[in-house]
## 1
Amino acid sequence: MLIKIMNRRRAKSRKVGDLRRLMRYLFTPKLSAEPMGARLLGPPELHQLLLNDRPWGDEVDDAAFDLADQLWRYCREARIGQSMPIVWYVHVICSFAPAATESLRSPPDPYPTPARWASTAKNAIRVTSDAMDFLGWTLNRPSVFVVHGDREHIHVHVVAAIPTAGDDDWAILRLSRREINKVAKICAEAFNIPVAPRIATSYYGAWEAIHGGADDPSGHHSV
């Protein structure tokens, strides 16, 4: 299990168009140039956001624009009378080792949950949301969770607002690599899954060295 913050370093302020492009990538089921399996493993999970169109097929752009605009408005409301931070939303990727796929079909749950999980995608989101809790995420924070399977490792993209009305600005961007790795280790051990997929560590490390922390690890819409 590996946790990566993709947009930690930015020299220029984020624009709503940046978020729209990221959302479009997250919701696009498959690009023909990619050799791996299906990208979307299940529907997105939303918190404090509404989705009026299905995020696939002809409605990808509508869904991406709608959610990006909602998240932008939430952040603007939280910063009334103040300037927006350079990074006003966070893009986190939680990756699971290929060997963890079997574990994600029916992982042990150390905490009581309202219902049994229905799919590998839901289980991946369950583990990821637990990790996000350790990183300071809260349910009142506008967020999108999307599970992808177009790499050898299943991975969950999380896009969440940093400034939120009625809450302190989230300090996630100030967490050290060591602190983030510790959270990944705790959650991996709790759910009995491998700690970090080497292929994901190598992939995101090489990509970040080239692109310097932009959002999209596919390279399709680096911003």
## 2
Amino acid sequence: MPRKSYLLDLASERQDFVANQLDSQHNLAFLTGERRQVYIQSVVDPIEIFDGISTLNYQDLLTASLENRYDLKVLQGQQEIEQRNLSLQQANRRPDLTIRGIYERNAGYVPHYFGVGVNANLPVLNRNQGNIRVAKVRIREADAYTRSFELLLEEEVINALNKVN
């Protein structure tokens, strides 16, 4: 009786394998632009595969993964955004001085009126310290996210290299 269940399990696994293989063939035919049902067989020399595996270097793989991962680039872009936000907040702590000129030909009681206006925003007490602190915290947060993702990426590279070996 147990033999029958093993045979059924093997038949089920074989059926799943064949279905996955047919789906992969269909996807490959679609990607290569084949209109008719074609069976594409890969031709790979096993010796070349093992030679390629033996030349894998951890540092090269890590460098390539750090350069080519889009999600890491997003985190690095977020770091740059936070740096620019800090420089904006630091620029906002300086006084904002506005000078404007006014000319009115016949609008008031004085004809040909010339005037000068000066507006000064003086951040004497606060000097935007709260927003600067928030920007610095967000920079540290973005750095921590990036570092933790880089560590996760290193672990993924090590894990993949161990699986290959």
